[in-house]
Amino acid sequence: MSSSINERISFINGLDVYYDPAIAAAAASDSATVNGGATVSYVANLEGQMKDDVINSTLLAQLAADKKYPGRPMNKMKEWYDSYRDVLAQVGWAVQQFHMSEIGNSNSYGSVDKLVLELAAAYLTGGELALFTKMITALKDTKNSGAVKIFDSKAGYFNDASFQVGVASNSGGNAMFKIGTYQYNSSDRITSVLFFTFGSSKVSFFAGNQTMVLNENVYAQVRQAVLDKLGKNAVDLVKGIEI
Questions:
Q1: What is the CA radius of gyration of the chain?
Q2: What are the CA-CA distances from residue 103 to residues 7, 30, 109, 204 (Å)?
Q3: What does the buried/exposed string (b/e) look like for 141-172 if buried means 16 or more CB atoms within 10 Å of the residue's CB?
Q4: What are φ and ψ of residue 68, in 5° steps?
Q5: How far apart are CA 194 and CA 37, in angstroms?
Q6: What is the three-class DSSP state of 38?
Q7: C-alpha span between 99 and 81 (Å, rounded)
Q8: Rounded to the nearest 5°, which phi and psi values hold at 21?
Q9: Count of CB atoms within 10 A of residue 109's CB?
Q10: What would the pLDDT profile of 16-30 be if each residue is shown by its tens digit?
Q11: 179 near 209, Cβ under 8 Å?
């Protein structure tokens, strides 16, 4: 997408983003955060500023899509991801269309976290997968209950769930994000998005992934506009995960 910096800033300033006052910020070396309905692991070579850039830019994209499609309804997920992608592209990410395929016999994996880890093994390197697994395991610990609460509040809606997970690293001076996108529907109420146990529930599960790269030269020119638009969301919806 070819846009001038003034056009990009004007686009960000014009966004109407979701804010939930009911839902506070952290995040160093190998590390991880929850930001809204996403969990991200960060390889140690990703500097603090670049880490913040990944968090804030993807959170802005989530909130803009949430404002247009509240509750992330399953029948509007293509539109939700089109909006999400549009914002990412405007702030400097090189990002493709998001495509998800249905996972057959998802119940056989036992739970969402086990299925997500199985799928992640196909697009993460060995070191990345180890870090990603460490993050998922850490989210089971009560010391990270605050992060899980934020994640569930943004990613789960009664019988539906939609979320993003992945690993970010430094690639030639730009942030690279290997992102997995997931959505599922269950015949039973979803009380824990990432650790939902399928059991005898009737489940439809969809997944996709891609590698996105953030042009730091472009993003540096819109960084403050992104922060201004996020406002308190940049604190309220971001929490470090103790790994």
A1: 17
A2: 39, 30, 11, 8
A3: eeebebbbebbbbbbbbeebbbbbbbbbbbee
A4: -75, -35
A5: 11
A6: strand
A7: 9
A8: -70, -10
A9: 18
A10: 887 665 543 333 478
A11: yes
**How far, rounded to the nearest angstrom, does the alpha carbon of residue 58 sit from its chain's CA centroid?**
7
Helices and strands per DSSP (H, E), number in the chain: 9, 9
Burial of residue 222, with CB atoms counted within 10 A of its CB: 0-12 exposed, 13-18 middle, 19 or more buried: buried
Handedness of CA 190, 192, 194, 196 (dihedral sign): negative
Q: Please state the rounded mean pLDDT for residues 180-204.
A: 94
Q: What is the DSSP string of 64-113?
A: HHHHHSTT--GGGHHHHHHHHHHHHHHHTEE------EE-TTGGGG-BHH
Q: What's the pLDDT tens digit per position in 119-177?
A: 999 999 999 999 999 999 999 999 999 999 999 999 998 899 999 999 999 999 999 99
Token code pair at residue 218: 């472009």
Residue 149: partners with Cβ closer than 8 Å, 6 or more residues away: 23
70-114 pLDDT, tens digit each: 989 888 999 999 999 999 999 999 999 999 999 998 999 999 999
Q: How large is the angle between the packed helices 5-13 and 77-91, nearest 10 degrees?
A: 140
DSSP string, 171-223: ETTEEEEEEEEEEEEESS--S-TTT-B-TT--EEEEEEEEEEEE-HHHHTTTH
The pair of three-digit structure tokens given for residue 45, joined into one six-digit string: 């070579």
Whether pTM > 0.85 for this model: the answer is yes
Q: Dihedral, CA atoms, 35, 36, 39, 40, nearest 10 degrees?
A: -30
Query: CB of 2 within 8 A of CB of 11?
Result: no
Helix (H) or strand (E) holding 235: helix 233-236
